[in-house]
Amino acid sequence: MSNYSIRQILIGIIASTLLSSVMAFEKKSFYLLDSNGNPVLTTRQHECVQTPNTSHTRTERFEICGEIVEVEKDIDLDNDGIPDDEDQCPQNTPEQLVNGVFQSGVQKGCSIDSDRDTVADYLDSCPNNTSREINNGVDSTGCPVDLDQDSVLDYKDLCLNTPFGVAVDETGCPPVTAILSKAPVYKSACEANACRPLVVLRDLHFAFNSSELTPQAYVILENIINNANVANQIMILGHTDSMGREIYNQDLSEKRAKSVANFFIKQGISLDKITIEGQGEDNPISSNRTSSGRAENRRVEIHLSSSPMTE
After folding, report:
1. First CA to last CA across the chain, in angstroms?
2. Which of 110, 162, 214, 235 is the Cys-Cys partner for 303 at CB 3.0 to 4.6 Å?
3. CB burial readout 265-299, b (16+ within 10 A) else e
4. pLDDT of residue 70
5. Per residue, what are the HEC states of 95-150?
6. Which residue has the higher pLDDT, 223 or 187?
């Protein structure tokens, strides 16, 4: 064999060896690690899955599958039980952890906020606000606000900008004083064909056994604001059925009429145009002997007139 042939063979062996070394180096890739830091095996024993990009990828390379030493546990700096690579709030203080943290979702690892008012429970003096209370705003302590400081919280205040120091009723509005004695009244209005109410609010338009207006009632009232603005007089008459004590029914009928009046006042309608009256159970329009009849009798009538009202 010639020296040239021997030289070619040696060159081939050396090149092959170098190529094998390069290929071997290329195979020294990152390995997919499980949550305990151990390599994940393929179906063939001792062969690792190779992958370059995972949340558990280590910085060093390994010659042999399983050649891993001193694998660190998942880091959890604030000791809230949520690994930092999953923790949206990885640096909670002990104070923040008192009420626990969210275990899942977009706020995983963050302090629990039970009522979702953006004030975490550990700072929240009112952690169980309703959606209605939250929609009207909460302060830094997580409690409903009272911006006009009239002692009626904004979520139930019909007059949110009452001047400071002005006396208000339970609806947050200056009290309507024009409550008349029991009818019959407004004879001239009836003669002017104005006795038929423009709108009648039923029980479903008030909170149960309460004078608080429901969202349905607000929609109805907002639809008649233009009519109310051009009217010279607005009569609001509250009625109940005959169930319960007469004095209680009288009070409820007045409060419901007043809630409607306060709505109009809040919309800028002058108090001078408004007259309210609670008629209690005195003027039914249906029989109080049936449930359907009693439902008809529980109502608030809104009468509008273009002429002054007299008794």
Report:
1. 137
2. 235
3. bbeebeeebbbbbbbbbbbbeeeeeeeeebebbbb
4. 41
5. HHHCCCECCCCCCCCCECCCCCCCCCCCCCCCCCCCHHHHHCCECCCCCECCCCCC
6. 223
Angle between helices 246-266 and 215-222 (to 10 degrees): 50
The helix (run of H) or strand (run of E) holding residue 73 is none
Domain locations in the chain as residue ranges: 1-73, 187-305
CA distance 221 to 227: 10
Residue 132 pLDDT more than 60? yes
pLDDT > 80? residue 18 = no
Structure confidence by residue, pLDDT tens digits, 262-285: 899 888 888 888 888 888 998 888
Phi, psi for residue 179 in degrees, rounded to 5: -90, 120
Give the residues across from 114 on adjacent strands.
none
CB 307 within 8 A of CB 245: no
DSSP letter for each residue of 216-250:
HHHHHHHTTHHHHHH-SEEEEEEE--S-S-HHHHH
Residue with token string 């020296």: 3
Residue 24 CA: distances (Å) to CA of 7, 63, 144, 274 = 25, 9, 68, 93
The alpha carbon torsion through 284, 290, 294, 295 (nearest 10 deg) reads -130
DSSP-derived secondary structure letter, 156: G
Give the pLDDT confidence score for residue 34 in this predicted structure: 57
Is-contact 182 279, C-beta < 8 A? yes
Closest CA relative to residue 255, chosen from 304, 204, 300: 300
